[in-house]
Amino acid sequence: MPHMAGLVAPWAFVKKLRELKAHLRAERVDEIARRYLVMNAFDGSLAILSVVVSAYLVGASEPKIIVAIGLANCLAMAISGFTGTLMTEKAERMRRLKELEAVMLTSLKDSDFGRVSVVASVYAALIDGAAPLIAGLVGLSPLIAAMFLPLGIHMAVWLSLATTMATLFALGAFLGRISRGNVITSGLKMVVIGCITALLCSLLKAV
Fold first, then answer.
1. How much is the average pLDDT of 160-179?
2. Cβ(74)–Cβ(48) under 8 Å?
3. DSSP of the chain, one letter per residue?
């Protein structure tokens, strides 16, 4: 009997976890998180692109300077994305929860729907906050490597730009796959946006 009781507890937890995942799927939380992932990774990549191009054109010769500025931008975007999304998603889901409670004349705070509201808000906020930070770190990785390896600033900058363009292409291709469109065309559109951003940064330097 004690052995059976020990098996019941994990099984009950797994069952609850499956129910929670089913509710999250019903609420389309994955779709919301996917949008946040692409949008904020895109923002993070463009932010790093503009930082690297601008810093290089004004004569920054130390990788750590560009890395510090880039990380500061990505960290600010991560904090803004996490807190903003958490507050927004929580407010929207709490409003919906209260509307259902008014219709059903009972509290749903401790129900599966109430728990999903909390989990969904935190999940979306984590994705929103992590996306620009990760995308930024990917773009900065050659410059971070240049801080510890014998890699020249010019080569590090070009590798950073290439890495960022590859990230933009991957995001575009991902969107193309989701929309069941042309993956290559969608990826190239993102790359074109990156090139335009770099060009604008160069023109601002010229002014």
1. 92
2. yes
3. -HHHHHHHHHHHHHHHHHHHHHHHHHTTHHHHHHHHHHHHHHHHHHHHHHHHHHHHHTT---HHHHHHHHHHHHHHHHHHHHHHHHHHHHHHHHHHHHHHHHHHTS--TTSHHHHHHHHHHHHHHHHHHHHHHHHHHHHHHHHHHHTTSS--HHHHHHHHHHHHHHHHHHHHHHHHHHTTS-HHHHHHHHHHHHHHHHHHHHHHHH-
Q: Which residue reads 């059903």 in tokens?
A: 104
CA triplet 54, 168, 140: central angle to 5 degrees? 50
Q: Cα separation of 196 and 49, whole Å? A: 11
Q: Are 58 and 206 in contact (CB under 8 A)?
A: no
Give the tokens for residue 58: 């004004």
Six-digit token pair at 196?
């335009």
Taking residues 143-164, what's their average pLDDT? Answer: 91
Lowest-confidence segment of 4-8, 25-29, 107-111, 186-190 by average pLDDT:
4-8
Per-residue pLDDT tens for 70-96?
A: 999 989 999 998 898 888 877 877 777
**Contact residues for 120 (Cβ-Cβ < 8 A; gap 6+):** 24, 27, 29, 32, 89, 93
* Residue 30 confidence class, pLDDT cut points 50, 70, 90: confident
Q: Is the pLDDT of residue 15 over 70?
A: no
Torsion angle in degrees (nearest 10) through CA of 117, 80, 195, 198: 180
